[in-house]
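Researcher: Here's a chain I'd like modeled. Treat it as a single chain, no partners, no ligands.
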Amino acid sequence: MTAPHGRALLHLAAALDQQAAYDAASHVELAQLAERGVLDFVTLGDTFGRPGLDALAVLSRVAPVTGRIGLVPTVTTTHTEPFQVQAAVATLDWVSRGRAGWHIDVSTTEGEARLFGRRHAAHADALWQEAGEVAEVAARLWDSWQDDAEIRDEATGRFIDRDKLHYVDFEGGTFSVKGPSIVPRPPQGHPVRVVDATEGHARRTAARYADVALVRVVGPAQARAIRNELRDTAAEFGRDPDGLRVLAALSIDLGDGERAAEPGHGGGGPRQTAQGPLYRGGPVDLAELVAAWHGADAADGFHLTPVEPRRDLERLVNATVALLQHRGLFRTFYPGSTLREHLGLARPANQYAVAQGAS
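Model: Modeled as a single isolated chain. Structure tokens:
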């Protein structure tokens, strides 16, 4: 689907993060609101650095009470077992019927390392290399079951065609995995991989493995430069750059009433703060900013983090999204049922099935 100016339609996502929220109901309410706005996906942050609910478990609770919106929890690959990580993400894809992603992150502090007691903190470059290996082994484990590996033949008592179950035999820098997975291949083949590519440490991992890269920037020129860099690096890794979506990431404070954007916000770009780029203004000017950046080929869409979750998400859906839909820049309905379909990404072929077919 394309917009009036010939470019692909925008992709829009929102964060569900809430301070000190320990109930499922508030997350369900926000996710359903975002789904009403036909957003591609919602994210839920997670970290070893502060108390909070497990994001993957919370979105597993959200899955059965939503029907179309993508669900993307943060999953930290440092100090965690890659085999368990991939099984948990695959499970989310199954319970959501193909709407799962995972926001890949790393843990860099010594305090977080002490929570596990397995090793000391490492440099970010090494951690992001490890994160790439986790993304690689996850893909192999998801492919370790071919799509038709399950037979479920009661007459013969055969549940699995063992010729369609594969050992991955992966050797990474800090871990090894034999496989196969204990979870059948997810509905999407590979749940969507999201990486924040703002910092240079993460950028090569994003270019090589991510389906969606987030970039926290304050202007369209900077966003466009990083997007071009990511696409060029993806091509160097042998990927089709069109298989990578780059979203500009902003926090948004839409206030309590319609008003012009504060100086430094508006269509000229958000303001840099200690927490990252922040837009503060009304939903109409936010729509203008989004349209301007998209028209300048700066990003494929936006990932927006509401400062006041309920208030700002409601204004985003009811005003900003409605304006973008009216201008033909954003869809009015979900064209498919999976997160990959929302993003216009193909379901990956099973690498082991391809190899068998070529032999």
